[in-house]
Amino acid sequence: MFESLADQPPDALLALIGLHRADPRPTKLDLGVGVYRDETGVTPIMAAVREAERILLDTRTTKSYLGPEGDPVFVDLLKPIVFGVDPGPRLLGVQTPGGTGALRLGAELIAAARPGARVLIGTPTWPNHAPIFTAAGLTLVPHRFFDVAGQRLDIDALAAALESAGPGDVVLLHGCCHNPTGGDLDRAAWARVAALVRARGILPFVDLAYQGLGEGLDEDAAGVRALFADLGEGLVAYSCDKNFGLYRDRVGALFGLAATPAAAEVMRSNMIALARVNWSMPPDHGAAIVRTVLESATLTSLWRDELLRMGTRVRAVRAALAAADPRLAFLTTQHGMFSTLPIDPARIAALRADHGVYMAGSGRINVAGLQVGDAPAFVAALAAVGWS
Ligand code: PMP
């Protein structure tokens, strides 16, 4: 049976973790793996999460099955955080195993409605996007979203892609904190996209995986809120894995906006049917933590404060890098943890071999892997390998 399988390449970023761990140099810097790190270099368990786990330990009476839709209270508590005002019964959501599960479920929902539908996808993007949509049987239509050499968004390329699309097509958009470039649409660009999406009847599918790690919870959702304010149909794949620091607990949701409340019920029943054949039901623990935090005003403000501090730290590292080398000034115009440097593979390899500086082979850096005080060493290493 399995002799027909071809070997699959390992995940390059996970391999980088192993290389970094094995490097004995005390001055090594890890800008590779995409998780938040605090000022001690740790990916912390947030204080509100710890407290919620304590509450759950004391109060939970059963671990019996939920259902394929997960915990509806968790989903309802997220709605105002994501959408601001609740659009009402046209908006539905189901809990998913992380943002990845939400993306896959959304892709399968689209494929069920319109087999082989075209998905406009801006490049570069998170490396898992294309395989997820392809695995669901959809057709990728790439366009340039970000010019890495010039460190500029290519809004015109996005607009041209939208202008060439129509009803039955999908556009994938990053809600905030673009991975891997940090290049986010500003208010005017979101308005332009919203107008085109509406005029052409395109379905927007927003991936919102880092809300709160950019400029703030409301600021990071401003684009998705503007887009959904006057929209017929749309999807949002949401992740709590980063903004609650719950990575391994796999916490997410797929939200759908349908044309009518009745269509929303049909959409929900299809999401549930697809969830059932994929994972039957999502894992409960992480979503129960989020629900416990959001049900408590005290824990919610503890969580919001800590998230705010995380975003502030990331912005401080961006500012420190820009101050250490004016050629990195673009970092302060970008959002979230990531940026993609215009740097070639030979220099990336030299940074690792000669300076213990680890970054993805694409040139993506996770700014949160650095401390403010690391900026001079990082900039010196870039200069030593001749980066410009
Ligand atoms: N979307 C983007 C843009 C991401 O960067 C990630 C995680 N790296 C995800 C979705 C998936 O998040 P999760 O871990 O919740 O599946």
TrEMBL record:
GO biological process, one term: L-phenylalanine biosynthetic process from chorismate via phenylpyruvate
CC cofactor: pyridoxal 5'-phosphate
Domain of life from the UniProt record: Bacteria
Gene3D superfamilies attached to this UniProt entry: Aspartate Aminotransferase, domain 1 (3.90.1150.10), Type I PLP-dependent aspartate aminotransferase-like (Major domain) (3.40.640.10)
InterPro entries: Aminotransferase_I/II_large, Asp_trans, PyrdxlP-dep_Trfase, PyrdxlP-dep_Trfase_major, PyrdxlP-dep_Trfase_small
Residues annotated as domain Aminotransferase class I/classII large: 27-380
GO terms assigned for molecular function: identical protein binding; L-aspartate:2-oxoglutarate aminotransferase activity; L-tyrosine-2-oxoglutarate transaminase activity; pyridoxal phosphate binding
GO CC terms: cytosol
CDD domains for the chain: AAT_like
Keywords associated with the record: Aminotransferase, Pyridoxal phosphate, Transferase
Pfam families, per the entry: Aminotran_1_2
PANTHER family: ASPARTATE AMINOTRANSFERASE, ASPARTATE AMINOTRANSFERASE, MITOCHONDRIAL
Record text on subunit structure and interactions: Homodimer.
Family: Belongs to the class-I pyridoxal-phosphate-dependent aminotransferase family.
Protein name: Aspartate/tyrosine/aromatic aminotransferase
Taxonomic placement: Bacteria, Pseudomonadati, Pseudomonadota, Alphaproteobacteria, Hyphomicrobiales
